[in-house]
Amino acid sequence: MISNVKKVFLKAPSRLQLFREIAVGIPLPPTPIITRWGTWIEAANYYAENFEVIKEVLNQLDPEESQSIKEAQSILRKKGIKEDLIFIRGNLACISVAITKLEERGLPLQESISITEEVVSSLSELKKRDFINKLKEVLLKNTGYQQLKNISEVLQNQAVLNETNQHFSPTDVTDLKFAPIVSCDVERIFSQYKNILAYNRRKFTFEHLFRHVIIKCNQQFFT
Prior knowledge:
Number of strands: 0
Number of domains: 3
Mean pLDDT: 89
Shape: flat
Helix content: 55-70%
Structural class: mainly alpha
Distance between the termini: 40 Å
Largest sheet: none
Order of helices and strands: HHHHHHHHHHHH
Strand content: under 5%
């Protein structure tokens, strides 16, 4: 449903105008990013909040005008679609909230682990076990998460270093106090590296790279 409704309003000024006339004060349907799961849950929340209005707008459109309109109208008529949106909004919204929190820079390891465990706890309360089973499966396979979870407990004096973490010195463990458990910081620097290491930098030396790194660090910590 989300992808089809997105297509309906993509590069369609007349449809956007109709939407603004009917759905006064309601933002346009969101455009989720394929690789960012949280944006899809946020989109589902949007449709749950504005289901009737979106349905009214789509019903005003001619299904013969495009395939996306026909498919979107057909999906909205399906039994259970509203109930699915209600379920997502009521039970899975915590995932997108947690993802947003985990994307913050400088988050203490203890807080990051706590956010993740809160999601585990929330999903564990659902009678439908598919979600919690999948999450637990992913976390169990992620040995790095298990290591960081143990280190977080050690930093709080609630556990001892397990066998996997025995090689860490006390200094190593304390240095992990603000270790991120997601890769957002790594992903953020891709575009920066692309700009710095552009192919047309013919006379780019190590000294230039050194100065660029200093500038980027200053931007991160003092802006």
